[in-house]
Known about the structure:
Blueprint: H1 18-27, H2 30-41, H3 49-56, H4 60-72, E1 77-79, E2 82-84, H5 89-98, H6 125-134, H7 136-149, H8 155-167, H9 172-184, H10 190-202, H11 208-231, H12 241-253, H13 258-272, H14 277-289, H15 295-312, H16 319-324
Antiparallel strand pairs: 1-2
Amino acid sequence: xxxxxxxxAWNSVFAVPCGIVDKHLKLAGAAQLKVILWVLRxxxxxFTVEDISASLxxxxxxxxxxxxxxxxTGVICESEGILFPPVPKAENKAAEESTPVKDEIKITKxxxxxxxxxxxxxxxxxxxxxxxxxxxxxxxxxQTADEIFGRPTSNNDKETLLMIHESDGLxxxxxxxxxxxxxxxxxxxxxxxxxxxxxxxxxxVITLERAEQKIQQLTSGRSAAGTVQKLxxxxxxxxxxxxxxxxxxxxxLWKFSPELIRYAYEICVDxxxxxxxxxxxxxxxxxxxxxxxxxxxxxxxxxxxxKNTRKTNAxxxxxEKYESTNAIFEEGF
Length: 333
């Protein structure tokens, strides 16, 4: 009589190193875990990045990014296109002892002069992994970033987030709030987030309270910018960051009425033939400094300015001088 042990699905298994479960199950992202499992399942076979990409429905860039993680963390090594487990330290030592040591001649290369960079260099993947292994808050930051982005973040994204946290000084909870705000605007990309983070760091927005105040300010500014665009008949134009700052100042800080803002716009178009945000800002700044709060006062001031222009042949609001002492801002659409 013959016997057979039927293990069902267990008849076809493959080995997974304990280190992947013990250490990297928490640290690695979903994409990285999928890739290493696929590679282990197809050990002994020839495959390409494109094969993994087609099988997992992931981009080739994400596959390479994930493979880089496993190579940087020492789980796998690569030589001439062949992947293999790292050689145990004991074997390395034995190999070194069995190899005759030759006299070495060390050549000292002249040190390159250091140069100042505008931004600190991003941490590499090795350092990122070390920080995730030693600090639970970094792991939480990266996992939350995946949820906010709605996809596994790349190693480059993670390295940038770590740089923002450590170099710019934004705490994890503040950085998460910033990412959530960016996602709400539909601008959940690492470049936009890094730019915002630099501004927040410069303004010392490093507490939850300050972050909430900053987001309220940005929200009110965007609302004001939308109102101003409608006043000027520019609904199809997406306001720039500078235009949002102007609109917030005109409506929320200086408290000008829509009627006066529209009048300042008309003065600008009459004088320049097109909408120049900085010109409108200079008109409203003059009114604000002069205590002008009504349409009657603004019209009287404009009439007085025209009379002075005819007498002195000077610009009504000394705009030319204003423009010459300030950087030129976007002047058209």
